[in-house]
C-alpha cells in the first residue's frame, strides 16, 4: 500500500463508512483516512476478481481489517486463508502477501501500516 503524505490524508476527527462509500462511488478506490509519520490508515475498495499483486514490506508491518466482502490471501507462498467481514489479517515486515477478491461483492478493508514510510512496497 503506497505511502500517504500526512498533508493528503483526511485526518478527520470522525467519518463513517457510508459517507466514504458515497464520496467514492464504484470500486476500485482508495480513501486516505489518516496519516502521520508513525502510521497510515487507508480504506480500500476493490471489485470482485481484483488481484493485488504479491508484495512485501521490508521495513513496515501491515494490519488489515475486512469490513465487507471476502478475500483469499496467501502469505509467504504457503499459508492460504479466506477472510470475510470482521476478520483481521497481519503481514509482518518481510512477509510476502498476495490478495484476490472472491465472491460477488466488492471488498472493503482498512489497512494500517506502521511506520508510514515512502517506497516500502516491493512487488515480486
Characterize the main sheet. 5 strands, antiparallel
Strand content: over 45%
* CATH architecture annotation: Sandwich
Number of separate structural domains: 1
CATH superfamily grouping = Jelly Rolls
Assembly classification: single chain
Question: What's this entry about, in short?
Answer:
It is built from one helix and ten strands. With 124 residues, it is mainly beta.
Walk me through the topology.
Layout: H1 17-24, E1 29-35, E2 40-46, E3 51-56, E4 61-68, E5 70-75, E6 79-83, E7 88-91, E8 97-102, E9 107-114, E10 122-123
Antiparallel strand pairs: 1-2, 2-9, 3-8, 3-10, 4-7, 4-9, 5-6, 5-8
Task: Write a structural description.
- This protein has 124 residues and is mainly beta.
- The protein has a single domain (18-123), classed as Jelly Rolls (Sandwich), CATH 2.60.120.
- The chain contains 1 helix and 10 strands, in the order H-E-E-E-E-E-E-E-E-E-E.
- It has one helix at 17-24, and strands at residues 29-35, 40-46, 51-56, 61-68, 70-75, 79-83, 88-91, 97-102, 107-114, 122-123.
- The strands form 2 sheets. The protein has a 5-stranded antiparallel β-sheet, with no helix packed on it. It has a 5-stranded antiparallel β-sheet with strand order 6-5-8-3-10, with no helix packed on it.
- A hairpin with a 4-residue loop joins strand 1 (29-35) and strand 2 (40-46).
- It is globular and about 40 Å long.
- The two termini are 14 Å apart.
- The model has no long low-confidence stretch (mean pLDDT 95).
